[in-house]
Design brief:
It contains 9 helices and 4 strands. The N and C termini lie far apart (about 35 Å).
Amino acid sequence: MEIFLYELVGHDVTRPFSPHCWKARMALRHKGLEYTSLPVPFTKVRHVEDGFDRTVPVLRHGKDVVQDSFAIAEYLETTYPDRPSLFGGEGGRAMARFVESWSHVHIRSFVVSAALMDIYSLLDEVDKEHFRRTREAFFGMRLEDVVNRDPARLDEFSRSLEPMRLTLKRQPFLNGKSSGFADYIVFGLFQWLRITSSVRPLAPDDSVSEWFERCLDLFDGEGRKITAA
């Protein structure tokens, strides 16, 4: 049964950049599943699957339509129990939920502050208008004023990753000896930054950078198929 994954793109439809879509991509590859990527710009998201939802990723598998990267991972885990597990049980699922919340606070906020205008520059004109209008309403300020690349901000971000570094001293992946969905949650955010922006906040020999390189190599280099900005 064919699988379709709707993914967010800018004017270059070959460069999906959404962190949530990358979580779903990596989950599909972890399960060893083939899929067809369907690129969707911002202003077309509301038309996906006849208005099924207003965010992507959305996965179509036969009659099933699933939205939200975590829900997609749970769906794949239930639908394909005999393939490699994304969570390794309920404890791993709960841990992934914690990682999702932690990374939203500490990593997503940094990527937004560093790369918002870079993301804006990747869009078609109609999507730029939509992006500026909706994001400025959300932030209550101009996009340009959201961006913060002050060295002190970079240092603060680096310090916030210390829990990851301590974990990666003991094991190669957040999930343990092998990668799991907890890794793909964090990977998606760093991949978002890698694809959209030239900002590189960590040194190559940082253990988090080394972890990210290992994740880029997973599944025949799935993450490297899209070149860095």
